[in-house]
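Quick question, first post here. What does this chain look like in 3D?
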Amino acid sequence: MHSTNYYNTLILASPDSVTLEGKTDFRSGSVAARQYEMIMRSLHLLTSDDVIFGVFADRNNIVEADRSEARRRFFSKAQVCLRASPLVKTYGFGIYHDAQGHVALCGVEAARYQELVDRENVKKIYGMRSKRT
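> Answer (accepted):
Ran it through. Tokens below.
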């Protein structure tokens, strides 16, 4: 089984992100909107795997009764992690994974974002770039 979960890690906004604050002007139903809503509704309750699969299942109309088997099949191969999320690539958010792998968002302008950047015991990795350089 593959996993996209991180632990004690902050995914920083992508180096080529041009926004200076977390923005929520997502297109309704987009991946960014769905990830944002899911994470904000369940702060520190969902893992990256939960969010990535949840968005996939919702977009593909997988009913609740079929989700367990669908999730097993989905993670039987490697999946793209939240480093590729439009939230970090375009919308100015960092994604913090706590010690249990649960996720929370923080805009790059937030004091919490800087606090996490400054903490030595939190691993920092950048979100993926939007453009190749």
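The first strand starts at residue 9 and ends at 12.
Strands lie at 9-12, 93-97, 103-107, 123-126.
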